[in-house]
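User: Last request for today: this protein with S-adenosylmethionine, please.
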Amino acid sequence: MSEDGVHRYWARCHWEGSTGAGYDAYDRAHRGVVVPARNPIDLSSDPAFLGDSQRCNPEQLLVLAASSCQLLSFLAVAARARIDVRGYDDEAEGVMPESVKPVRLTAIRLRPTITVGSGHSPERLAHLVEVAHRECYIANSLACEVAVEPTFRVLGYAFGDNEVARQRLTLLAEVFNPSSRPLLVEHAPPRVRLAVDLGCGPGATTCLVAEVTAAERTVGLDSSLSFLAAARAAYAGGGKEFIEHDVTRTPFPAPVSAADVIFARFLLAHLPDLAGALSAWLAQLSPLGVLVLEETETIETANPVFRRYLALAEKLLATRGATLHPGAALAKLATSAPARVLASQIRQVDVPADRAAELFALNLAAWRSDPALEKAPQELDRLAGDLDELRMTDSGTTGLGQQVSWHLRQLALAPAVE
Ligand SMILES: C[S@@+](CC[C@H](N)C(=O)[O-])C[C@H]1O[C@@H](n2cnc3c(N)ncnc32)[C@H](O)[C@@H]1O
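Assistant: Here's the final one, the structure of the complex with S-adenosylmethionine:
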């Protein structure tokens, strides 16, 4: 932008040939370049006007400009609103009826499919699309109508929250509660007024936290209504309660403030902003409170079926900007967070092949409908079959080489002393 506040754009077009033989005979091919970009664009006219369909024509460029500008405008509006946009695919169309004189594009229709992280209502997203449209420089420059008809895909918790997912989390708790218990025993303060279990799922971890800390109140927070319903049915009462909340948003709901213990296990693997979560959660502690975290550092197995499963899980989480193994990054962040590191250690949990296969198999159903994996149904079918076989094997005979070893990063953090 120059000092007068005016943005200027330059483009060059080059054609050479001969129009001497008349309208039907000359070559429409030409090259365009926008300065200072170096890559030229091969151009022609609409094939209806004797152009080349393999090159773009100016009418298409106009439609593309409207589409691109709305995309950029929306990303900017969404980023300012702290919405995590993960994908944007537009199918744009322009219409130019020859019956309207002088001939011109009379309407452009943009049909973007916008993929966002969890926790955003379609109403809010539609409002932001509208704001982006109002701010779109190209739409504002055009005389023709530009309509935006968005479709939203909200990425939920990657591993689903139906009955099968609930069973998986129940099994997960059976396998991993024995490693969480001593961590909580060691670091819970002697008197706990309020303990909070973030990403509580169907409540087994909340129950563990309540039992170990003997808290007066223990609150499980989760964004899944169906997990919360299961948690309430199984564990509510006796000081335990369950509240719907997106844990990336703080402060936590009103009754949950100044917690003496905040616990989260296998949750940060689903969140894109580890540093943001860490500092936000530390700020929710009471002055003598402790944040206790348990996340995967590495998962080791020699079994090729499990390795295929783990590669797919990593791919799925990457579409949400998250990772299956946040442990090491978390340990590093903890050293620079506004916190005292009371513990940062690795604990190994060895899971026999049949159990690991059962845990993994329960996820596959939820993955089938995920945009990242829906195009790989055969791979999911093959994996389901292979996991089934491993599930049937007797863990005693599968041997050490077949087991899956989780190395869990266990952290206990206290707020930094002022
Ligand atoms: C792998 S499960 C872990 C459940 C439990 N902590 C355990 O270790 O057994 C992750 C849980 O986090 C929840 N979750 C994921 N993202 C969340 C968010 N942004 N806010 C609240 N809960 C979330 C999911 O619904 C799910 O219940």
